[in-house]
Amino acid sequence: MQSDGNGGFSCPCLKFSLGALARWQGHGDNLWREELLPLQLFKCKMGYWFVVEGVEGK
Predict the structure, then answer these.
(1) Is residue 21 a contact partner of residue 30, using CB atoms and an 8 Å limit?
(2) What CA–CA distance (Å, rounded) separates 38 from 25?
(3) Are 56 and 39 in contact, with CB atoms under 8 Å apart?
């Protein structure tokens, strides 16, 4: 994953950003640790959700 220098990110498999992980806390009964909640959540073209250490959501 690479930063575009304007706060956005790109990667070959990236489909879109889902915002901060905190926004999805409890979705599908998933609960994440407090320290992960500020991280930005992404979805790849294969349908997987992922966060990148150090990349915080809005």
Answers:
(1) no
(2) 11
(3) yes
